[in-house]
């Protein structure tokens, strides 16, 4: 990762006498770098402090399905469930599309066509979360509601499909949130997959073509074995994003703390409940919402460390080969 | 990337027949289809925002104040408090995060080299890009707002925390591209390391760094979650970014989106168009800087 072929870093050119300003600048740079670690530690410490009374008041009951601020019941299972469900829906929809676009950019279209495609993907990344939410709740949800309703009546009574796609249905639901999240994580999964796929050695691809492979056979035989580790990392990063994305989900998820297998029913997830209820919360209620933030922070940190580790390791292996 | 064209130029008798060829065609079409699947929602969103927002936006809407209550129809008051808040808070966040981010990247690339601390900072800064924005809001709420109250400054801290790792990553990539002979030539003239970094390395990478920073600002300007518990949402303009509750375009869109009143919804669309315009202008500026001023690129 740290390319420094000339070895200039870390050793001063004329080491015996360094002016004060030079040393001061180095310390300033080091301090800015350390700021990242300081902020991460501070996030963990301060939010945990604020959440302490929730953890101590409820103990393991935080993982029950019983959220009722009026009677001081703060079991958060429904939100954890909703976070997992929406994130998984988003990943299932976003990953094939993202990997498809990444392959399209790297292996199919010529360079002068790939640039406009990249612009469009970047444009998607710049549309703010709240605009997705606004469009989701005022335009998309009322429209897709009818589709949900007809699917639900169609699968009524069919064992597995009915279990997931049966009624009740609502425009604002787990599934709508999952779709909107999928739009939002597509750019990041695409750009990371693209970087990984770009590291596949040219010689491997040419070798596959020389053996008479079609383009698709070249992709499955030469590109995929090289890049699958990195793509898995990219998918995990997308999962982390989908779990933490707040405002769009808060608007379109339906705000109902229920655990149900029905994907077209309204639900709730962790970031959405924090965004919607923090304003009027105090005491243990606020502490509980803060605690949801701590859980969310912990989940996303674990996923990101895993994902970055995988991406970095696969990149190093490719470079070493 | 260009080798793909080679087999196409090969003689036709090499072209695979039957199922293998069909499968290749099907998969290529599916790849194209995945791009189409992305264009449709993007086009739909942009079309709706422009169509609905354009009818709301007027000079009065952009400069009027205060933001009227939800029940009133569009055309009364204006979004100026939110526009001012977004500009001030995002600007302040930029002033904090961009210099610190560039310095952090300088540490990683120029001083850290291959040592364990630089590796750790680089890794954790990548991890920090994945911290949910709402968690940043909760963090600033606990560490700042509880002690000093709501203010634009608190919002700027939250946005700055979000921008910092992004700026570090993009600046680091740009510094890495600066060729070593440039550094060595400066050292050979007897310059100190800080001087080499500030007057030779940094200017050489500046185009890419500015472009990356602009993209980070564009992302931050659209963030709502970190502002909800740090600036609150008021309806009058508050030019003092250091004290008192404030408001922003994303916060206004969020609070208007769930309103049943058409006036509030219209204001939401107008604010959305204004916000998207700001974000796109920043993004286009980034592209322009990249195209015009980047000296070294991948």
Number of domains of chain A: 1
From the N-terminal CA to the C-terminal CA of chain B, the straight-line distance is 14 Å
Mean pLDDT of chain B: 90
Q: What distance lies between the first and last C-alpha atoms of chain A, to the nearest angstrom?
A: 15 Å
Number of helices of chain B: 12
CATH superfamily of chain A: MetI-like
Protein architecture, described:
In chain A, helix 2 packs parallel to helix 6 (174-198) and helix 6 crosses helix 8. Chain A has helices spanning 20-58, 77-108, 111-126, 129-155, 159-165, 174-198, 202-210, 215-244, 247-252, 270-277, 283-320; strands at 65-68, 73-76. Chain A has a two-stranded antiparallel ribbon with strand order 1-2. The model of chain A is unreliable at 1-8 (pLDDT under 50). Chain A has a single domain (57-320), classed as MetI-like fold, CATH 1.10.3720. Chain A is mainly α and 321 residues long. In chain A, 74% of the residues lie in helices and 2% in strands. The radius of gyration of chain A is 24 Å and the shape is globular. Chain B is built from 12 helices and no strands. The relative contact order of chain B is 0.15. In chain B, helix 2 (18-56) crosses helix 12 and helix 8 (180-188) packs antiparallel against helix 9 (193-221). Chain B has 298 residues and is mainly α. Chain B has 2 domains: 2-43, no CATH class; 80-293, MetI-like fold, CATH 1.10.3720.10. Chains A and B meet through helix 1, helix 2, helix 3, helix 4 and helix 6 of A and helix 1, helix 2, helix 4, helix 5 and helix 6 of B.
